[in-house]
Structure formats: C-alpha cells, structure tokens
Amino acid sequence: MTESDAAAEQVADLVAASELAGVPDEFQRLWTPHRMVYIQAGAAPMHADCPFCAAPHKSDEDGLIVHRGTTCYALLNLFPYNSGHLLVCPYRHIATYDQATPAEVAEIGAITQHAMEVLRRVSRCDGFNIGMNQGRVAGAGVDEHLHQHIVPRWDTDANFFPIIAKTKALPQLLGEIRRAVADAWG
C-alpha cells in the first residue's frame, strides 16, 4: 500500500466515524458535565481534600451552596439522586452525628426543615428521602465529614430508567437548580 493509499483510507475511516455519531447503539449516554471535576482531579479526588471543608471557602456558585448558616450550611449534591438533592453539613470536620454539638444538631434540623419548604415551592415535589449514611460501611461516599441528604421525590419520578437501565434522568443542570433554590431560600 502506498502512502497516498494509506492517507486516503484514514480519511475514509474518519468520514465513516463522523457519520456514526448519531447512530443508535447499545450504550445509554447522559450529559453530566458536573462530573468533570472528579475526572480532572484524578483517580481519588475525595481523599485528597474534604469537599465539605473546601466548599465554604468557594463562592456559592462554585461550591454549589444554597444557604450559609452559623454552624452548618446547605449545598447541592454533586452526584444527585434526583434534581434538587441537597446536603446539610456542619462547617466543622466531624464524622458522625454523635460528635455534633447541640447547636449543630439544632441547625441541621432547622436547615433541613427550611430546605423542605423551599424545595416544595421550587420543584413542587411530593415527598422526601432524608437521611445520613455514617461510615463507609453504611454507604457514606464521604465518610469523614457528617452530611445529611435531602432528596426530593415526585409521584412520577420512578420511571423505568433506574429499574431497567440503571440510569437516573436529571432534567436540570446543577447551576440552574442551585440558583433557583438559593433565590427562593429567603
């Protein structure tokens, strides 16, 4: 094969590949630009720095923060189960609920209540999953910093995606949700 034949074959392969971009295959694809922070940080970004200690030092937009309290704050989950999935964290780096002060426990509760009111207004959700996974064995993704999940739920949110395709559909980008929740916090 000559050099010009090889070059012509490469061009043909590139043209064929570009035509395949819209051809359906067996893979499901979801647009998740918020995950780039983890890809760019390397293999184990969660172990390098605590994301819940770092977030309050960022702008609200960059830290996905919707409310800053005295001892605790609320932010969007970077890996949401549903749109509007919030986390309530103490500023202090503590691992479990029993290490929280009475003031932190009270503010976690107060922020959780207000977050539920805000999410009902903003997203018209029908219910919530609220909970804490404490320790890696209990399912905590960040086990060294206490955080409570507030996951809005809708009567119609349990479609076939999670069951059949092991896929969650998130209809809004994190920045849009953060802005709407923060604006409604009041």
UniProtKB/TrEMBL annotation:
**Residue ranges annotated for the HIT domain, each copy included:** 51-160
**Annotated motif Histidine triad motif, positions:** 145-149
SUPFAM superfamilies named among the record's database cross-references: HIT-like
The record's annotation in Pfam families points to: HIT (PF01230)
Keywords assigned: Nucleotide-binding
Q: Which Gene3D superfamilies match?
A: HIT-like
| Record-linked InterPro entries | AP-4-A_phosphorylase, FHIT, HIT-like, HIT-like_sf
PANTHER family xrefs:
AP-4-A PHOSPHORYLASE, HIT FAMILY HYDROLASE
Q: What is this protein called?
A: HIT domain-containing protein
Give the originating organism: Microbacterium kribbense
**Lineage per the UniProt record:** Bacteria, Bacillati, Actinomycetota, Actinomycetes, Micrococcales
